[in-house]
Write a structure and sequence with these properties.
Helices cover 34% and strands 21% of the residues. 52% of the residues are buried. It has 353 residues and is an alpha+beta fold. α1 runs antiparallel to α2 and α9 packs parallel to α10. A hairpin with a 2-residue loop joins β5 and β6. The strands form 3 sheets. The protein has a 7-stranded mixed β-sheet with strand order 3-4-5-6-7-8-9, with helices on both faces. A 5-stranded mixed β-sheet has the order 11-10-12-14-13, sandwiched between helices. It contains 11 helices and 14 strands. Bound molecules: adenosine-2'-5'-diphosphate and magnesium ion. Adenosine-2'-5'-diphosphate binds next to α7. It holds the Pfam family Inositol_P.
């Protein structure tokens, strides 16, 4: 008998692989497919294209599942030139493995209208009942535009619990043992591109972006931290997304002297899951911002399956059953199980966190 969620894992890996290859094409273009420049939440043609490809794969395989996705198609209905650019990209991005492309993913998107309908169908409200996929087609768009790290994110929740998580990180080194660095290789894809995956209760793996599917995966695990003072922190590049001043106070209290590695997107979760970093802190910068489920679902499972513990700053598990946002959580602390409690205690000693 095949293990639980093996089909979901295969479809998710291939869908993320295909979408990641699409985003890489946009990334290598100097204008990076920017759609809205001044926006606080920038968007590129890669966001829409990747979302269309992932939803196409999910609709083909799991037609009755719900989908929560970050982007919506209305902009494309109003802007024909924009829709045409995205359509060119979507119809010309295919896996080399024709069998995977046609038999698993269901082949190409039919036409431009179909593409926009697919993008629009990621509008589920989420919740605690049934099978719901969460998609962030390009997490860390600011990093993507800067030439830094970003991630293509997909997770399946069943009754509010994450069962499958896949992260495509086209700019992280393939090598799990490479030192943690925010450097994305100045646009070179030599030795870069990794897919992290996890299924609840089955561990976490990494594989090169160019060889997705179920073959070629290696088990990954967090690095055991014996001395917290020797640990390294991972945090957002954007000071508006995580309070870097509070993180510095926490590092000092823990005796950590190494500077934090700042990196965009859920690439942080993948990096600590494979032991390239130790602790990911996301400390709220505002009382009103609610984290989005697509920004955390895959990473949360991958870190937990690699031997980590993930909570918010109050020590509560991330709760993906409250709709499109983590309405009942505040910030994130992801750390190896053995030291998570110590980190949490120190986080709570910092006034205002
Ligand atoms: N005030 C905020 N606090 C935390 N995260 C935020 C905030 N504003 C936006 N984000 C989200 O942070 C994510 C990127 O995180 P990171 O800093 O780890 O790369 C993006 O998905 C972004 O959402 P959006 O895409 O809607 O701007
Ligand atoms: Mg995001």
């Amino acid at each position: 008998m095949s293990s639980p969620y093996s089909k979901e894992l295969l479809v998710a890996q291939l869908a993320v692989q295909r979408a990641s290859l699409l985003t890489r094409r946009v990334f290598l273009d100097s204008a990076k497919g920017t759609v809205s420049k001044s926006d606080a939440s920038p968007v590129t043609i890669g966001d829409f294209g990747a979302q269309a490809l992932i939803i196409a794969a999910l609709r083909h395989n799991f037609p009755s599942d719900e989908i929560v996705a970050e982007e919506e198609g209305s902009k494309l209905r109003e802007d024909a030139a924009l829709a045409d650019r995205i359509w060119e990209l979507v119809k010309s991005t295919k896996l080399d493995d024709e069998k995977a492309e046609t038999e698993v993913l269901g082949g190409a998107v039919k036409n431009k209208e179909h593409m926009i309908d697919l993008i629009d169908s990621g509008n589920s409200k989420g919740g605690r009942a049934g099978r719901i996929w969460a998609i962030d087609p390009i997490d860390g768009t600011k990093g993507f535009l800067r030439g830094g790290q970003y991630a293509v994110c997909l997770a399946l929740m069943v009754d509010g619990d994450v069962k499958v998580g896949v992260l495509g990180c086209p700019n992280l080194p393939v090598d799990d043992a490479a030192p943690l660095s925010a450097d994305a290789g100045a646009g070179s894809d030599e030795g870069r591109g990794v897919i992290f995956s996890a299924v609840l209760g089955q561990g976490a793996t990494s594989r090169p972006l160019t060889s997705a599917g179920l073959a070629g995966g290696k088990s990954i695990a967090m690095k055991p931290v014996t001395e917290l003072s020797a640990a390294s922190f991972c945090e957002s590049v954007e000071a508006g997304h995580s309070n870097q001043g509070d993180a510095a106070k926490i590092a000092e209290k823990l005796g950590i002297t190494r500077p934090s590695v700042r990196m965009d997107s859920q690439a942080k979760y993948g990096s600590i899951a494979r032991g390239a970093g130790d602790i990911y802190l996301r400390l709220p910068t505002s009382k009103t911002y609610q984290e989005k489920i697509w920004d955390h679902a895959a990473g949360d499972l991958i870190v937990r399956e690699a031997g980590g513990q993930v909570t918010d700053v109050l020590g509560r598990r991330l709760d993906f059953g409250h709709g499109r946002t983590l309405a009942e959580n505040k910030g994130v602390i992801a750390a190896p199980k053995a030291v998570h409690g110590q980190v949490l205690k120190v986080v709570q000693e910092v006034p205002g966190v």
